[in-house]
């Protein structure tokens, strides 16, 4: 072998070694909205959506946690009883940009079977951390709406006709519910991972400022993006741990909303206050309050399933709620006996929980002068949900070293 050939071979070997040493990027879910079944017209709250769409375009915004070189969009027919025909779909990188078309097996549209979801083909659209996208879906045929996410805390739009490729919609009406879109994955660095927060309206962001990304998970996502970790919001307003509420129970949806998410490595559980407080209210007049043992068993079930998958799982104490929802049909949501059970559950979480660690959100939000109440500075005004300052305080109460620390179950997020 002459000198030139030797140099060429050495260079090729070096390049090959460098390529082998650089782990390939992988898919990580960067945004999520947990699907819920659309309820009937006699439910306590309106659905905020029409009964069906036909020859209409639905457009919504979604802020990513992590960016990446490519993305793919997940559309859901989780609770549909008939096939869902998608005529076309698109993504715009910024408000006012011309949307780029999505494809499904190379085609502009797709039919999604009942109970299923569908990922688009990868779209080469580079995105940055915390970038807001606009996703549009066109439905050509009469489409009963059976799957949605009720409390999006984001304005979405319903427009006549096929407008999925237009930078601005014409003749649109607004809603704060989400339709069709359940997730966005990005192709990110091999080290990128996600944390899923499964919860109820407090995680869903029920009283966070509209269109301002002020949920506590949004603040946590801002803290974690520099670490290459996405935060996925699996909150459902009216969600419960043990029983279905305004969505399936956490026990039922844990597989779909947590374990099945690409790139997930850690879970935060903040749910249970509706299990304690719904019974006896307009939501569930005939129900009895679950026992402390039943709630503990539910938490153990989630922890065992997470650990079986090698995931790190953290619990969070339930926040104060004395005087919750005054002047509403749910003004009996709070009662001293319910608060006593919350305190018992929190004491167990702090001392003997099945989780890898516990985030003490009760301590972060409570009024020092009256621990049964949320501190006024953090209260949205309904005495149950934190306002924007409270959401920020919740995110700041998370110790990132604890959250991202080594797991005894095979995963290290650091």
TrEMBL record:
It comes from Stenotrophomonas lactitubi. Residues 197-393 form the SGNH hydrolase-type esterase domain. Residues 1-21 form the signal peptide. Keywords: Hydrolase, Signal. It comes from the Bacteria. The lineage of its organism: Bacteria, Pseudomonadati, Pseudomonadota, Gammaproteobacteria, Lysobacterales. InterPro entries: GDSL_Rv0518-like, SGNH_hydro, SGNH_hydro_sf. This is SGNH/GDSL hydrolase family protein. One of its GO terms (molecular function) is hydrolase activity, acting on ester bonds. Pfam families: Lipase_GDSL_2.
